[in-house]
Each structure stands twice: as structure tokens, then as C-alpha cells.
Write the C-alpha cells for this entry.
Amino acid sequence: MAKRILVTGSYGQIGTELVDELRNRYSGENVIATGRKKPPEVLTEDGPYHRLDVLDETQLHTLLVELNVDTVIHNASVLSATGEKNPQLAYRTNIQGSFNVLEATRALNLDQVQIPSSIAVFGPSTPRENTPNDTIMRPTSMYGVSKVAIELLGEYYTKRFGIDFRSLRYPGIISSEAMPGGGTTDYAVEIFYEALKNKKYTCFLRKDSMLPMMYMPDCIKCTIDLMEAKEEDLAHRSFNITAMSFTPEDIANEIKKHIPEFEIEYEPDYRQDIADSWPKSIDDSVAREEWGWEPEYDLESMTKDMLEKLSERLDIEY
Ligand code: SER
């Protein structure tokens, strides 16, 4: 039987492209896009869209039952920088929202739930290079705290109630469609827009601030691959994944290969503290071993593709 997948946060940076690819694979009507606000047109073109606030438990249960959903991908989340500005909002949206989704999964006996985690689960006491899958998780941001809580709650629900919970610790995601909002790694997307539009960019992180990253096609691939993985192959429920690591200076130099006049300046702000508490590089061998994860894009191929896609969409030649 075809899956019936409900996606929350479906017009966020990842949700927008994920819904599109899920609809290609499982057909439009089987992928239900949801969000709190009015959806962009593209989400209502090829399949159903419903308003949903995950903090409203009744609305969540009703939708899941009425639409015959068996799988939830719960992407609605407040990211790291917004979470530091408004920790109470991050707590409610991320922890209470995910708890509601886990409870609905249990009560309605759904087949599977996937809730994203992040490199933000790690903190200053974690080894920062080649950070292992199973290591110290004592984050210092509210976003990180909320993602650790989600992993632990999901794993508890799996052990205690037998639900099928899965989670990916996304690194910074670079994409050419929807903008990210309120994250610490957002600079790696903004830089492309500014390089094309203004040939210069002021970066809110230091030039040597190395972070793990991934291009959107790989992000969509690992999300769907994990969803499709056989449950018996999974010894873990929460997985490190990465594709590359670079600094703002590295990506600026890569962009300069295509746009030689491009200039970058650095004015680190409060987001630098968040970046300094996160890993520089990630060991994702557990994901590779358990469900065959392998990224396709590195800094060079991602930069070339991003500039091509974005210049076409913005109609700017370079
Ligand atoms: N991109 C996210 C953030 O910066 C990391 O999970 O908040």
C-alpha cells in the first residue's frame, strides 16, 4: 500500500523541496503539506495542503485520522539564532510540538515518525573534530537543548511504546529555493544571493569558523533514504550526517572562482558564540553502515550548481 505522508513545516527551507520530491515519488495526493500560515502556491498545486499548528493537539489528531496518514515528517521548528532571541518560543514549538507529534504517533498507531535533529545537539564539551555519532551531548543553546530532548523523547517512545521514530542530525543546509530562517548556518545561503546581486557580502561569522554542511539534494536524499530504510537494519534512531565542512573564507574563495569580483567582509555577531559551540566536522560512519548514506555534493560541485540554479531563478548573469 502507498504511504500517506504528512509533512509539517512544509514551506520551510527543507519542507518546500521535500514535499516536492515526496510528491514525485509517492504521488501528489499521498503527501499532505501542512503549515501554520497561508501556503505558497507551489504547495497547493500538486497535492493537498492543510493548515496545522502542532501545538493544537485536537487539530493534529483530527487531521491524521481524517486523512488516513501513516507517516509523519515533523519539520516545523524554531532554529538556533531565533531560539536564542526567544528561548520560550523555541521550547514550546520544538519540545511541546514534537511531544504532541510523538503522542499522536503512539495513540493512533502510525507506521513511522521522522523528526529532524541537528549538529546543535553537541556542545563545547563534545569533541569538535570528526564528532562521533555517540558522544557527549551537552548543548548550550536552547535549540540544541530542544533537539536533545526530541532525540531522547523519540528514543524513549520507541523503547517504551514500540513506535518507529527516526532522526537525522542535519548540518547547515544550502539550498536555492526557500530561504532558511533564523539559523546560524544561514550565511552559507545568503552569501550566494549577495554574490549574484551585489558582488559582496558581510558575513556574521568569523572567516575561520568551520562548520559541517550539506547541499539540499543530499538533504532530501538522506531524509527519504532514512524513511525507506528497513527498521531491522537500524541499531540507532538518531544519526550524524554530513557532506562537507568549510569556513566562510573557503566558500568565498570557491565563489570567487566563478565571480572574481566578489568580496567578503566579516562582522561576527551573537551567532558566533553558537557556531563556536558546534562541531567543525562530523563522523557519519554509523549512517553509512546502517542504511547506506553517501553524499553526492562537495563544496566545489555544490557552489557551481547553486550559482547556476540561483542565477537562473533570479535572472542575473555572472
Ligand atoms: N541550520 C541550523 C541552524 O543554524 C542547524 O541545525 O540553526
User: Anything to note?
Assistant: The mean pLDDT is 96. Residues 87-107 form the longest helix (21 residues). The chain has two domains: 5-173+215-240, 175-212+244-280+296-314.
